[in-house]
């Protein structure tokens, strides 16, 4: 499956819709799932990718409070959406509040999913994490996330 790549500047319209980048629309045409991402962004998954993540979360031990909390955040924030003919999806109000989305947003490819960020939050995040990226050596045998 091809990866989602790139960074795209967009705006939310008055109805809370965002245009998905045209190069991703075919993969998302049958629907997608928006949910809370990490670092106060939104994660956008194909239905299949969301299902795969969901299966991993539902296999977690119910006795593990951290796993329960993560599952609650992931599933409670999830909304199924279908892009319209212009490639727009509605970003539900609770998700807009969570991510601080008002008008200017950035849609980024994050490998197997997309993320939607408030533009200023994304710029601050990039500045603060650049040293980690700069010092990263993926060729190192000890490289492991």
Polypeptide structure, described:
The protein has a single domain, classed as 3-Layer(aba) Sandwich (Chemotaxis protein chec). The strands form two sheets. The chain has a six-stranded antiparallel sheet with strand order 1-7-8-4-3-5. A two-stranded antiparallel sheet has the order 2-6. The protein is α+β, with helices and mostly antiparallel strands and 145 residues long. A hairpin with a 5-residue loop joins strand 3 and strand 4.
Shape: globular
- Give me the Rg, rounded: 16 Å
* Count of helical regions: 5
Query: At the first level of CATH, what is the class?
Result: Alpha Beta
Biggest sheet, in brief? Answer: 6 strands, antiparallel
Q: Superfamily at the CATH H level?
A: Transcriptional regulator MraZ domain
Mean pLDDT: 91
Question: What distinguishing features does this structure have?
Answer:
145 residues, alpha+beta, Chemotaxis protein chec, six-stranded antiparallel beta sheet, two-stranded antiparallel ribbon, 5 helices, 8 strands
Summarize the structure.
Helices cover 35% and strands 24% of the residues. The protein has 145 residues and is an alpha+beta fold.
Strand and helix layout:
Elements: E1 7-11, E2 17-19, H1 25-28, E3 32-36, E4 42-46, H2 47-58, H3 65-76, E5 79-81, E6 88-90, H4 93-99, E7 104-109, E8 114-118, H5 119-134
Antiparallel strand pairs: 1-7, 2-6, 3-4, 3-5, 4-8, 7-8
């Amino acid at each position: 499956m091809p990866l989602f790549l790139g960074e795209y500047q967009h705006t939310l319209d008055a109805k809370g819709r965002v245009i998905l980048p045209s190069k991703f629309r075919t993969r998302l045409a049958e629907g997608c799932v928006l949910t809370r991402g990490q670092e106060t962004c939104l994660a956008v998954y194909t239905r299949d990718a969301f299902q795969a993540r969901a299966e991993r979360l539902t296999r977690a031990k119910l006795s593990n409070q951290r796993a329960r909390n993560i599952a609650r955040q992931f599933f409670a924030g999830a909304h199924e959406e279908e892009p319209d003919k212009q490639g727009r999806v509605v970003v539900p109000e609770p998700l807009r509040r969570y991510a601080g989305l008002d008008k200017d947003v950035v849609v980024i490819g994050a490998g197997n999913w997309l993320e939607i960020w408030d533009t200023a939050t994304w710029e601050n995040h990039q500045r603060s994490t650049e040293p980690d990226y700069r010092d990263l050596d993926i060729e190192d045998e000890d490289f492991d996330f």
